[in-house]
Amino acid sequence: MIPQDLKILEEKSIYLLREAKLRFNNVAALWSMGKDSTTMLALARKAFLGKVPFPVIHIDNSIDFPETYRFRDELAKKWKLDLIVGESEINPDLVGSACCGKNKPETLKKLMATYGFDALVVSIRRDEHGIRAKERYMSPRDKNFRWNYKNQPAELWDDYSSKLDVRGHIRVHPLLDWNEIDVWNYIKQEKIPVNPLYFSRNGYRYRSLGCTHCTIPLKSDARGVNDIIRELETTKDEERSGRSMDKEREYVMSKLRALGYM
Amino acid sequence: MAVESKMRMAADALWRDQSEENWKRFSGALRRSSIRYYRIIFANGGRLNRMQDLTKSHIELYDSKHTIVTKVPLSLREGKRVRGATIYLSGLQVWNTAD
Amino acid sequence: MEVRNIALLGHKDHGKSTLIGSLLMQTGAATKVRVMEAEAYSKKLHRPFEPAFILDSFSEERARGMTYDTTRAEIKYRSAALALIDVPGHEELIKNMISGASYGELALLLVSAMSGEGIMAQTKRHVFIAKMLGMESIVVAVNKMDTVNYGEEVFQRIKSQMTAFLKAIGYKEANIAFVPISAYRTENLVARSTLMDWYHGSSLLETAYGMLSRARKPAGGQLRLLMQGRIETGSGALSSGRIIQGNMHVGQVLRSTMGRGRHPVSEIFVKGTRVKTAIAGENVAIRFGDGLRLPRGAVLYGANESLRARRRMLTLIFATRRIGQQARIRFIGNEYKARFKILDIIDPTTGKTLRNGTLAPLRAADAEMEVDAPIPVGKPAELSRFTIYSGKEFSGIGIVNG
Hints:
The structure holds 3 protein chains of 3 kinds. By secondary structure, chain A is an alpha/beta fold. Chain A is about 35% helix and about 15% strand. In chain A, the strands form 3 sheets. Chain A has a 6-stranded mixed sheet, sandwiched between helices. By secondary structure, chain C is of the alpha+beta class. Chain C is built from 7 helices and 22 strands. In chain C, strand 11 and strand 12 (about 275) form a beta hairpin. Chain C is globular. Classes of the chains: A alpha/beta, B alpha+beta, C alpha+beta. Chains in contact: A-B, A-C. The interface of A and B includes residues 65, 73, 87, 91 and 213 of A.
């Protein structure tokens, strides 16, 4: 895993976050309380001088980790976040992820319609998955959240050509260039608060956080940010290998992604 | 042992009635006791298909020496609706064992 | 670690995705899961292991053996992180190719040595676009050398033909290198191949690395600050912008290409903190002493310097869709109406001008452009390039030549 220049990554993210706020009327961000979306909020605070200028959405299936809820409530208070909680259901899902599969996007869809959001900041990174490497910084979704990945808009020279579809929205990806290790290096540098589940207890830690049902811990003795960075420097395992959803065939993932799975 | 008996009462109350009011009323007693860790046991070998399945699952609660203290339900009811109740254990830490 | 971007170009099936897959395997950068996925998918399609599947992630891409959209993979080599940008080779997907390749600092062109493949129209078109995108250096990897028994003859033929074309479209000979490889057999990629004793140059990665260390961007110059817009912050409403050249400081007096007057800078914020100076590459939030509110698309510069904005200029444009006389252009984040007067239609696959042509898709042109408002064209590169729209559709790219 290759660490990149944090200054360059940071500037690009700040640019994209400001661009999102300037281009769209009603921006919101997804916040899963994981390390990536929390880092995104820290970047938004830099871009807008200490304030997060958009509401943050937690899609909650009511069985998140107690640690996650606590982290959410404490940070929301500390950073004065405008937190919107959308209640999602547990329902049978074609790909076998009743807790987090297509149910969360369904809740998000309703929420987006209720509030009329036209842009959604999502903290995905290119190195997470082969499919995510194909994403644009600004990427249109239609009203059914479908990603037309076979016909993506051109994007070059700071021209983010994505057009707003009728009743659709634009996904903004300010962390697209970041690698997992960059996020941790930045968390260390900026002392960003992180969910305690990332740190080892009893020989286990979580590397990627879903809900209590779909997240499996990995064996690790990394008790702090420095340990995690050291661990990542040598690992060859995928970050999301602890998420049961990702064990599905990749073509299913591709279909799911097009349906709006995040 | 007043704290511990209040905790036992709270667990019993939650098993009798998983209403949201009960969770609000009794979860504080759980957190103020010797309980430090939790572990979620999903029913049906971990298969979860719908909200209703949450009622078959439960949470084991442990003290600082990792000894099991008591168990509570995983679900809560708002009228007829079933929801998870993990938010009421905010403050506890997950306990993963080697299986 | 510094990331250097390499754009992989070339005709479809000449091995771009295979090359990246092999490099990821050889440098140990591929994760276990991605290699396993590629193995499983190769097996499913009853084929020997296909390294391209590490990169091509859409099911359709794997089933059809073709890249749909641009993607990126990073490998570590010496002191740099090399980001390899894979682009689709198919001509219908040229919009995706341009999007991916626009981030490249160095062009890595693949030409297949296999009989019946060789230099194709798309090979040349990609190079033409690379030059427009500002990649001044190019490494030509002659691939599939295993299919010609690693013989020198095909390599030399491709080298002489390609050199002639590259020079015709403006590449300097010193900025061109040729390397024979087999991406599939991993020959001459990271280490020198032992199967081609007639070749005396370096391996592919070493060659690319050497080219990149020469292709440095010049730093410094007069201040050029691109205004992004007005943002509401924790410290009130401020003007947001990005410095693309030079530096600025509190107390400095600036002028704008939109509107008149001299504007003293009273406060600068970078990364959320109040600072005295800001440098190129930084996004700034500024408060002006005169309460100035600047429109998006304005360029700010030092009051003692000059920056002329104009409406008419000579351009080189490349069309991904038909471009008529009237179009819209986007220049540093702002949209303008533009009229084009075509001077010459150019065939990017030969570099030669066509008589009586129209500006059809995949063609280029020298054109005179007139914009509905003056724009500050010049250096650096950000101020000499634009994207073109017909109606609401992306239709091509252009650079200002004079």
